[in-house]
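Below is how a single chain appears once it has passed through the pipeline. First comes the sequence as given, then the structure the pipeline wrote out for it. We keep one example in the README because the format questions we get most often are answered faster by looking than by reading.
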Amino acid sequence: MNHDPNIGPTQEELNEILQQTPKEEGGTWSAEDLIRYAEEHPVEPIIDGLLNVGETLLLHGTEENFKSFFVLQVAESICTARPLLRGWVVPSKRRVGVVETEMHPAGLGERLGKMFADGGISSEMLFLSQAAIEHWRGLNLRGKFEMLEAWIANHDIEVLIVDTANDFFRGRDNPLDERVVGGFFDRMRKLHLQARILVRHDRKKKEHDGGAHSNELIRGSARWKEDPETILYLKRKDKRTHEVHMEVGKLRYGKKPEPQDLWFDAKCFRLTPLPPVIAVLENGGKSREELVSECQQRFGVGGRKVSDMLDEEGDFIVRGQEGHKKTLEIDPERAKEAPWHPFLGCHSESHPPMYIEGGPHIAGGEAMAVAAPASPPEAAE
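Resulting structure:
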């Protein structure tokens, strides 16, 4: 069969396709066939409640919203089987290949060095080299996919992360063209992978964006929001602090979790669902001066904001006095009533242990909305 892909198959070619279908299927499934298939081939989660085998996840937002930080954190969770954001369970390890098109390798290496300052970086996280990316950029869309296919096969990559997808589209390959973007997703699905994670920038703001759904902000063709099974949106609340709003704009299979507020922690270069004052006190008590200083350094939060946060979390914090210094620490009993308690201690971003049964489990849409902030102003994207 060798027809023009822009015209479509003839009736003769359609009959040939049906004849090539296994006899036991006959080209058609009954409802019972589908039920039996679902029982025999249950969904296999990669990130439980967020991404399954065979799916595509799209992460989007404007620049300087910590997308590139977050995809590295996602890569870490997938290749180590550690829970994502202390909640989404990753049942098994998978090898991750990252195509980072925006950062210089020195900058990327520096960022990884801060993420893994205490060691523990997984050998299952691989990156396409700078020389390979420079060669890849010069290819047409077909050539780019052929090169990726070879890289994936040579290194047994199971999950591909592309940050960002912009460099796929050069010359005649227009990301605004429905057919081009549709072909892009078709080819993505044909890569021998278990899942794909793509990063895409949002378009420029418009006057009527106030009430728009976050999916409508994605730059380019409507296929960008129609083809992926999962869409995640990150929005930095205030450029002066590291607080980020995250929402699942689309979850094709399952119940969408509630939006979640996160904070970028400049100490470990990861997002956390814990409020800054709780994150700082998580490993032990601090003097007020130490707390304010650490909140400023790690989360971009000043003294007045820290005071407001302490008032908000006052029921869960014990205040004391050591000499002339005021001290603060988390009250372990009262903290059990706090909305962030399920995330406490089960998965430290700086020293992430394996998932502990009985800890938080955000799956099937059972997410908790937790107030938390994230990321250093000078280390945006």
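The CA atoms of residues 82 and 305 lie 32 Å apart.

See the next section for the split statistics.
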